[in-house]
Every structure is written in structure tokens, then in C-alpha cells.
Amino acid sequence: MELVTLRDILPKAKKEYYAVGAFNFNGYEDAEGIQMGAERAASPVILMASQGACQYIGLYETVGIVKGIAKHSKVPVCLHLDHATDCDFIKEAVKAGFSSVMVDASAKEYETNIRESKAVVDFARDYNCSVEAELGKVGGKEDNIVVEDRSATFTVPADVPRYVDETGIDALAIAFGSVHGFYKSEPKLDFDRLAAVLKLTDCPIVLHGGTGIPIADIQRCIGMGLAKVNVGTELKAAFSNTLRKMCKELPAEEFDPRKFLKPVKEAVSLIVKEKLEAFGSAGKAADKA
Ligand SMILES: [Zn+2]
Fold first, then answer.
1. In what helix (H) or strand (E) does residue 278 lie, and over which residues does it extend?
2. Is residue 160 pLDDT above 70, yes or no?
3. I want to staple 179 with a disulfide (CB 3.0 to 4.6 A). Which of 51, 125, 140, 210 is the partner?
4. Predicted structure pTM score
5. What is the mean pLDDT of residues 132-152?
6. Residue 85 Cα, ligand 1 centroid: separation in angstroms?
């Protein structure tokens, strides 16, 4: 299968009140684990690489891994660039073959955010690549982007319609109480703010920082019309904890890397399958819009 864009999977999800899971990977094993989980759930899936992950794996290697995975996949696979702030890097990623990108100009002032996000949309359109952008600031830490928890600002619903119209984006990340990474205290989502945004736009809305939010809260958002949920930290933890466990369990004379890494893939796959079932997208693989 060819890679799909957010346009192929999110409008349908929004209409039918389920969300597509978007999962961060940092190498071949977790990328493969994510796809395995999606196939087990018969769900479409979004594989996300951050700018940092692309630099670690190599940009063309990142595209190569996911195109290879998608080729034999029974479920739609989207390759999405997560939280990129550098427009030149975004253009390189689009040209390299990403089917979707996120331009994060959320730290900039409103008009600049519109201008930069629109420029990415204009460029990506020629490559049939979808674009997600962010309005408001999701707190926490994601690669080199750090937002102070306290100064994290929520999205102003009234800012949304003009932002979506003028940029022409395919998905919008909003800030309404989630943060990146593990939560230091119980997260409190501002459901009223989400409802207000959903009332003002048809653009599919994205929740960042899906790790650690009670699943019932995420399901409540999905029931309101949330269409994409990002999960990163939880997979990183599963990867590292499983690898640590294998290092302890396997005998000292074991040296086949596959013995260490196959259980890692399996652990990632299980979490992904569980999430997709919880997000309601299990069984929706054939539902390409
Ligand atoms: Zn994020």
C-alpha cells in the first residue's frame, strides 16, 4: 500500500466519532511494532517521527523504513513529521516522501503562525502531503521544544476559524490541558474549550501528550469529535523497560540482537493495539475516505 495522508483518514474518523492513533518511533523496531499493533487491531495508523528522530535515523532512512512497512501492510499507514519548527527541514521531509507534516509555529505570534503554517501548506500541496499545525501551546518537553508548564497557554477558540481558513491546514493541534511527557500531577482537560473549538471548525482536532491522560477522558474527547491522538512517551517507556528486562533475563553468552529486540517490538505492538481499540478505530482499516 502507498502511504496515506491525514486527509485520507481523519475526516472519516471525525464523522464517525473515533480517533486515529499517532505514535512516535525512533528506529526500525518501534516503527515495525506500531504497524504490527495496527494490523492486529485492523486500524489505520499514523507513524510519527520528530525532527530529532529524523536526525537520529536519517531522513531518507526514516522514509525508507516506513515505505517498506507500508508496502506489505494490510492497514493504511501515514508517515507524519511531528513538531517541526524549521521550514527548510519540513520542505526536505516533504521532498523525501513524508505523506504528512506538522509545522509547529505555536511559539510565534498569531499572524506569524498563520503566515508560516500557510507557507508549508502551499509547498506540501504539490506533493500530496497533508499538514497539521498548532494554535496555543501544549506544555511539557518534546525534543528540543520546551514550554514551561505554568506559562503554557491554552488555545483561544475564537482564534480558530480564521486560522484554519487562512492556513488551509488538514488538522489542528490545540492546547486544552494536555502536556508532553509523563504528568507530574493529574492532568485536567478543559472539555468546554474543546467543545467550543469543535463548534467553530470542521478541521480535525488533534490531542498531543496522550500518555498519562485517563483513557475515559480521552474517550470523552473522542465522543465530542476529537480525531487524532498522539502517543509518544508511553512507547518510549515500553521500549526501554522491555529492553532492560531482556538484558537481565537473557544469559550472558546470548549475543543475537534479535533475541533482545523481538520482545521490544512485541511490547510496542501490544500498547498500540490497546490504544487503537480504546480510541474506537479498531476495525476501521478499510474506511479510507
Ligand atoms: Zn506534540
1. helix 257-278
2. yes
3. 140
4. 0.94
5. 68
6. 12
Asked about 86 being catalytic, the answer comes back as no
Q: Answer positive or negative: Cα dihedral of 106, 50, 13, 264.
A: negative
Q: pLDDT tens digit string along 188-232?
A: 899 999 999 999 999 999 999 988 899 999 999 999 999 999 999
Catalytic one among 82, 192, 217, 287? Answer: 82
How far apart are the CA of 12 and the centre of ligand 1, in A? 22
Ligand 1 mean position, distance from CA 104 (Å)? 9
Chain centroid to CA 103: how far?
12
248 CA to middle of ligand 1, Å?
33
pLDDT in tens, 12-37: 999 999 999 999 999 999 999 999 99
Q: How far is the CA of 254 from the centre of ligand 1 (A)?
A: 38
DSSP states along 41-101:
HT--EEEEEEHHHHHHH-HHHHHHHHHHHHHT-SS-EEEEEEEE--HHHHHHHHHHT-SEE
